[in-house]
Structure formats: C-alpha cells, structure tokens
Specification:
about 450 residues, mainly beta, Ubiquitin-like (UB roll), 16-stranded antiparallel sheet, 3-stranded mixed sheet, about 55% strand
Length: about 450
C-alpha cells in the first residue's frame, strides 16, 4: 500500500520535483512511447490536498508501490483522480532522488461547500418551469463523503436529503449511502393522457445501500427501501391498488465494474452496471421483478480517434406493471434523431456508437485577471468533435418486436468539456426517415 513520507521529506521532494521535473520528464516523454517503462515505484507522495485525506486519492489509483510507472498509467490515474469530482487540477510526476524512485501526485481542490440555485424547464418544455435551491457538501471530513439536500418548487416539486460514504469500513472496504425524498411528478405515460388528461404522482421514498469495493474497479451491494406512490386521479392501470395508492418494500442486488479513465467523458476502459430488483414482498399489491444492464466500452484508436459504445436495457416480469413503473425514452434516456419523442413500455433496449476526436484536448487554465478563491482559479476545458449513431425501442409484454419497431438516428456535433465535470453537447441528428433536429444537451452522451 502506498505511503506518504513525513512532512519534511515530502517538502524537499516536492520542491525538487516542481523545479526539475517539467524540464526533464517532459523531454523524456517526447521521446518515449506512452507504455514504455519509466521505473519501479518505491513510494507515492500526495500533495496539495489541504482538505482531502490522502487515502481517498491513493484508493483511486492503479499505480502502487512496487509497480512499474508508465506515462499511459500515470495519465490514466490522473483522469481517475479528477473523476472523483474533488479537484480542479491533477498532475502526476515520476522521478528519482538519491536512489529513491517516487511518484508525486499534486492536486488543487475544488470548492466543497456548494449552495446553488435550481432552475429549468421540466423535460425541455418552457410551459413547465421549476426553481428552488440545493446544498451539496462534496467532501465531508475530507473523506469524499457527500451530503446533499434540495427543495424544488414549480413543475414537479420535490424535496430530498441524502448522504453517502464511499469507505465507511476501511478494513472490509465497505461503502454506505442512504436517502429520503418526496416528489410530485406529472405523469410520463402518454396513453392515459390521451384518454383522461394529465395527472400527478406523489412519491415518497426511503432507502439505504451497503456495498463492498472488491478492487479498484469492481463493486457489489444491496439496496433496501420502502416506496409509496399515490395518483391524484385514479384510473385502471395507474396503480395496482384500487384506492390509487401503492405501498411496497423493494430490494436490489447490484454489481458494478468501472475502469473508465474519466467518468464524465471517457477515452479508455469499460463500464458495466447490472442489477436485479424485486418490488413488493408478501401481500404487496405491486409485485414485480426487473433486471437492468448497462454495458459501455471505450477504446483509443490510431490518429487520436476514440470509439465509445453503449448497450443497455430493462426486462420486467411478474405481476401487473402500472404506468408509474414503465420505462421510457424521451426523458432521462433519449435517442438522438427522436430526442423529444416519448417511447413507452414495460421493457426497453438501446444502443449507441460514437466516434470522437479531440479538437482541443482537456487542459488546465489559471484565471488571474479576477480575484477568485483558489478553488475557482484553475479551470479545465476541452472540445471534441463526434459522429454518432443510436437505436432503441420500448415495448409492452406480449408485443412482437421487429426491425421496424426500432427508433434510429445518426449525426454529429461538438462536445464541450467544461470545469466542474460539466459536458455540453451541441449536435444535429437525423432519424431513419431523414428528419433532422438540433440538440443542445447538458450531459455526456455515453
């Protein structure tokens, strides 16, 4: 396990690194392959983390004491550490001093107390504005613990409180999260609206999760919760119970594998999320099981190109599936070419393929022309061009699937990688009928 030397030794090494490494290691980098071995690591030193505990950074790294350092592995670890969402800048250097070979990790921390306004238009509809406020403590105790609270008014009002700890038990590598929430949501189903008009769903939820991190990239766990939902206008199929209210416990077992280098916009690695959820036990009216899988792959190609793909889907079985348990395209998950089209069913499947190339690789910029806190004075920007194709559909149990039931699209655009892990996509897409649409979205595509 990597260790952090005493402060005096760290200070000496840090000063030597900052004065000599850019001139020596960078010149070596220009002559060496990214996978060429630099040497064995005798120790790992972490600096710049005034609030964050060193173990939070070390736990996210693939390189350890005794490993052989390469520029590719160092770049991978830089992105993994940046992906924690705790830092505005991450640098890693390898060098030797008096026979000792060390890896030096230098970071600048983000602002960790984040009160922020909440405003927008629900599902992109200007007739459905919402607003409120939220508070996020992004690094409680310097342990990467998250404390979040929000209150939203207007369209689909809600209130939520949650807490998570990625390492609640270091000896057994256990993590924990829990939360409670309320929301009043305008129904998403399109079939009932055409018959009876819109209605609202009142959701109350309490849940907790315990899991284990087995390796740098693999986790598994169990989520237990209790949910109650009430519809303001009952109609057959909106709830299983005839009084318009369903109450049920639920349990989810899940497995995750995440070796992506950068969570919000990966260039290499794999991602797999698989879960099995049982809704309702014993005498619960709502008694359904659902399996979900999400598989993503990222590969670097010659000439600086990156290929990314995603395959995901939901499969449901058991009792009656009310409208609030349907799955959709057109809200959270969307198909470019059919971006605003709502596709509804008991089950769904989707696939996306994307080819990317950085026009401006992500770089750090120091802002000096205005007086800003240190957490906002170093900003990270990047721009990528992308071509994409996607397809998918949703269906009800008993429906017959065919190629004609797929909704497909293709197109291209620019992706802007902004500070604090924000990705803005500006794209144009066509569907299989050659109808085009302009897309502005504040999310990474896959």
């Amino acid at each position: 396990m990597p260790t952090t030397p005493p402060l005096r030794r760290f200070t000496l090494v840090a000063v030597l690194l900052l004065t000599t490494w850019p001139a020596t290691a960078l010149s070596q980098a220009s002559r060496m392959s990214p996978d060429a071995p630099l040497g064995v690591i005798d120790t790992v030193i972490v600096g710049g983390n005034t609030k964050t505990r060193a173990y939070v950074i070390l736990d996210e790294m693939s390189l350890r004491k005794g490993d052989t350092a390469t520029f590719a592995a160092m770049e991978y670890d830089k992105n993994r550490i940046y992906g924690l969402g705790l830092f505005t800048r991450v640098d890693i250097a390898y060098d030797s001093l008096q026979g000792m070979r060390f890896l030096f990790v230098d970071v600048n921390e983000r602002w960790y107390l984040i009160p922020y306004p909440i405003f927008g238009f629900r599902d992109g509809d200007v007739k459905r504005p919402f607003g409120g406020a939220g508070f996020l403590h992004n690094n409680v105790g310097g342990r990467n613990q998250k404390l979040y609270a929000s209150l939203v008014f207007g369209s689909d009002p809600s209130a939520a409180l949650s807490f998570s700890d990625p390492l609640i038990d270091p000896a057994h590598r256990l993590f924990f999260s829990g939360g409670l929430s309320f929301s009043r949501v305008r129904n998403k189903t399109q079939v009932d609206v055409q018959t009876t008009g819109p209605f609202d769903e009142l959701n109350y939820d309490l849940n907790g999760t315990v899991g284990k991190r087995f390796t740098l990239s693999q986790t598994a766990g169990l989520n237990l919760g209790y949910h109650a939902i009430h519809v303001t206008s009952w109609y057959s199929g909106r709830t299983v119970s005839n009084d318009g209210t369903d109450r049920f416990p639920y349990a989810t077992v899940f497995y995750g594998l995440d070796s992506r280098d950068l969570y919000e916009y990966a260039s290499r690695g794999e991602y797999l999320s698989a879960s099995l959820t049982k809704y309702g036990f014993g005498g619960s009216a709502f008694n359904v099981s659902r399996m979900f899988a999400d598989m993503r792959m990222y590969r670097e190609l010659p000439l600086g190109f990156i290929v990314a793909s995603r395959l995901f889907g939901n499969l449901t079985w058991g009792g009656e599936v009310p409208t609030y348990a349907h799955v959709f395209f057109g809200y959270g998950d969307r198909l470019r070419g059919w971006f605003t089209t709502v596709i509804e069913g008991d089950d769904n499947v989707g696939y996306t393929l994307e080819l990317r190339h950085y026009l401006f690789p992500p770089r750090y910029f120091r802002v000096n022309f205005v007086s800003l806190p240190p957490e906002f004075s170093i900003l990270r920007f990047g721009i990528a061009a992308a071509l994409f194709a996607n397809t998918g559909t949703a269906w009800y149990r008993g429906d017959r699937l065919s190629w004609e039931s797929l909704y497909s699209g293709y197109g291209g655009g620019l992706h802007f990688l902004l500070p604090y892990s924000l990705v803005v996509r500006v794209e144009y897409a066509w569907n299989q009928f050659h109808h085009g649409e302009f897309i502005l979205d504040l999310r990474g595509s896959i």
